[in-house]
DNA sequence: CTGTTAGCGCGTTCAG
DNA sequence: CTGAACGCGCTAACAG
């Protein structure tokens, strides 16, 4: 392995000089800079990021902590999009991104997790999919020892930012549009998971809408499961005018049930996943640009690591009508 | 940050002694060991893995290089499974796994890629989803500078192992079973992607079967796309007795086409993805345990890094009948 | 069995 | 503008 030392002797300069041109220090004559760059090119020198981190004491390593529901869904399109976006943006900032799954740390105590991240020289963490029940992670956030960006939870403190869309308004918007289009009065709302941040926000949006439009609403929790949404629709769909679901997957379940019951009810979903196409029908939904959200998360983490204080970052969403063609073409 | 030095002075021993108990060296009296461990606990000391790697010159860092087709599929169940398995096993071996996507390195030259891995102190790489057209990666493999495990390609050299199921036999088995069950003679085979390793192996299996059972076979490439398989089935399905597909996704496309054409033809797939359940019908398929495969890949990489030579590792598969219930329940 | 010494590859003063 | 010297946190000989 060719090191900075080799470059130095090959260029006939001191090690520190090489280091300076490497890190774009101002006070290096353009002539020696040229010499050094030539030597670097000739030797194919690769600066060792690890050693640099050790020496400079700042690592530029960040972790992407993901809660993939491979159990309930087998396929997590949302998670994939989050990852893709974060990776892209991390590369842009020259941050070394390590992907960590909840499953890897689920049996660890707070201390162990802290230790894990410290031992890995990780200073910043992006967390996707935290719920109110993840007490250990809550502890991690409250300790303020790491710079953290939460992608779907509204916690903010000195070292923690929150990045997400306005779920309350989005749920309000999409449901309102669908309800007005269909002149519906009696709503079946299939919410997500009890105690989920996202779930609660979306629920608030519905409650506001119900008050404003003077509707009636039956709320049931579908736990983001297609099957449960299907069952709930069988059970309650008959006597409602519309089924509003807190996720596309549940909307699919609801639509399947309605098809089997052979009745029509408008359905609206949330997320804008492509999988939806499989249902072969149309419905209104909120499209979140997950990749973009996680890009923003990395940007925000970068800010935090530069010393900025935690804050709320709100990302835009779109109301769309998804259809079969989305997946087939 | 509390370092090994603090522990040493706190315990009243030398730094090297602490290092020795940290790394389980044999010749340390149990008494000093106790002292040191006490100090470690009291100070909450976390050994810095990065520094250790620098010093010992072996990194324990491996990369998982993934080719996710988020463009064509939007959801890559297989990729997710690969990742989950690899991560689990890496943790077991105490290897630091970095996930890298093809998209991150697709514009890089061979030199740049090498530089990237070197700068990251990465010694071992697991590659999922390489094709014959990835010339840069081929170069990386041939250079034998890194220990590499390929998950779906049969390349083996001094520093490269290959881990996969026997695709030829698997394709042969599943097609044979389905054909005999249905007494079919004229086969439409929708293969994967031209020049794909997996595709070619599976094709060989079909060719063998055709010879043995004296069948006729029309081969078309569906590029692992549901839509293309659908089109091909529309075009050729009518005059065939069976549609054999090189992937479940394509099998779904084929089944949709058959449903729309309102004719029955047995279909068989490959992979055993759960998404299949969405189709609402039954079919034979080959179930690969992707998570297990990538676990084996990590094990094999570990062997390579310990000095073993590259070799072929064959993993088992299962012939199964997948059905609607798989996803609903 | 323990402590001393010399690096790993790099960044960073501080004289020159 | 340049280079010698020191240190980051740790491991690995080598003495004692």
Compact overview of the structure:
Two copies of one chain form a homodimer. Chain A is an alpha/beta fold and 329 residues long.
Helix share, percent of chain A? 40-55%
CATH topology of the largest domain in chain A: Rossmann fold
Q: What is the largest interface, and how many residues per chain?
A: A-B, 48 and 48 residues
Please state the second-level CATH architecture of the largest domain in chain A.
3-Layer(aba) Sandwich
Low-confidence regions of chain A: 324-329
Shape of chain A: elongated
Q: Which structural class do the helices and strands of chain A define?
A: alpha/beta
Q: How many strands, what sense, and barrel or not for the largest sheet of chain A?
A: 6 strands, parallel
Structure summary, number of beta strands of chain A: 12
User: How many structural domains are formed by the residues of chain A?
Assistant: 3
Q: SSE order of chain A in H/E notation?
A: HHHHEHEHHEHEEHEHEHEHEEHEEH
Q: State the end-to-end CA separation of chain A.
A: 49 Å
- Within the largest sheet of chain A, what's the order of strands? 2-1-3-4-5-11
């Amino acid at each position: 392995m060719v090191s900075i030392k080799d470059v130095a002797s090959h260029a006939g300069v001191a090690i520190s000089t090489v280091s300076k041109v490497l890190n774009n220090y101002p006070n290096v004559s353009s002539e020696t800079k040229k010499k050094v760059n030539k030597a670097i090119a000739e030797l194919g020198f690769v600066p060792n990021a690890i050693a640099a981190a050790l020496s400079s004491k700042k690592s530029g390593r960040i972790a992407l902590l993901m809660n993939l529901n491979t159990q309930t869904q087998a396929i997590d399109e949302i998670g994939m999009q989050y990852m893709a976006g974060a990776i892209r943006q991390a590369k842009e900032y020259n941050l070394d991104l390590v992907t960590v799954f909840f499953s890897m740390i689920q049996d660890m105590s707070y201390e162990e997790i802290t230790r894990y991240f410290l031992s890995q020289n990780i200073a910043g963490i992006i967390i996707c999919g935290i719920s109110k029940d993840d007490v250990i992670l809550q502890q991690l956030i409250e300790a303020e020892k790491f710079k953290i960006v939460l992608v779907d939870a509204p916690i903010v403190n000195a070292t923690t930012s929150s990045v997400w869309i306005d779920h309350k308004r989005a749920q309000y918007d999409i449901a309102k549009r669908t309800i007005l289009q269909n002149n519906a009065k009696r709503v079946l709302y299939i919410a997500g998971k009890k105690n989920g941040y996202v779930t609660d926000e979306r629920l608030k949006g519905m409650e506001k809408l119900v008050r404003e439009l003077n509707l009636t609403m039956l709320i049931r929790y579908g736990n983001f499961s297609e099957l449960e949404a299907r069952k709930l629709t069988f059970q309650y769909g008959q006597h409602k005018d519309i089924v509003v679901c807190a996720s596309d997957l549940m909307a699919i379940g609801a639509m399947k049930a309605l098809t089997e019951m052979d009745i029509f009810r408008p359905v609206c979903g949330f997320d804008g996943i492509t999988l939806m196409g499989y249902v072969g029908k149309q419905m209104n939904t909120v499209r979140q640009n997950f990749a973009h959200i996680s890009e923003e998360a990395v940007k925000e983490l970068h800010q935090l690591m530069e010393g900025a204080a935690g804050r709320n970052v709100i990302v835009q969403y779109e109301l769309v009508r998804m259809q079969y063609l989305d997946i087939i073409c």
